Amino acid sequence: MKYSQTIGFIAVLLLIADCSLPWIYIPSLQLSVSGINGKVSEHLTFGVQIKGFIFFAVFLLSFFLIQKVLVKRINIFIALMNQGWCIKNYILFSMCRSGECPEIKPGLYILLILGIIIQIMTFLPKIEIKEAETD
Questions:
Q1: pLDDT in tens, 72-113
Q2: Which of 58, 89, 102, 133 makes a 20 to 30 Å CA pair with 51?
């Protein structure tokens, strides 16, 4: 695919931006939780999930720019770990606790979609293969 690396690069940046959107809303506490603000109370905190996404984004962004076969293969693995982190966050944030289920906001669904897009774009690298000269 001609623009797969550009689409992947943009998707990684959008994934980082998605961490600032609200992911869930807890009605009993009247609180929106995102990837940046994960503290609900003293006993319940989701952590700052953007740190993990920034860690993966550093590698994904640089590996989308480098045009080497080995780097593209490593990028598939890094994107798979990023996708696992997205799925973990979806499960963690959407889980019901003490009989109360949070309202899932579109930001959490966007997180999953962007993770899938990034993974697909790593499978479609545009690499120019040099032909061996035969004399």
A1: 999 999 999 999 999 999 999 999 988 889 999 999 999 999
A2: 102
User: How many contiguous H segments (helices) and E segments (strands) does the chain have?
Assistant: 4, 3
| 133 domain-assigned | no
135 within domain boundaries? no
pLDDT at position 135: 61
For residues 43 and 101, the answer to whether their CB atoms sit within 8 Å is: no
Give the domain range for residue 81. 4-123
Helix axes 106-123, 4-18, angle to 10 degrees: 150
Cα–Cα distance measured from residue 61 to residue 124, given in angstroms and rounded to the nearest whole number: 15
Number of domains in the chain: 1
Q: What size, in residues, is the chain?
A: 135
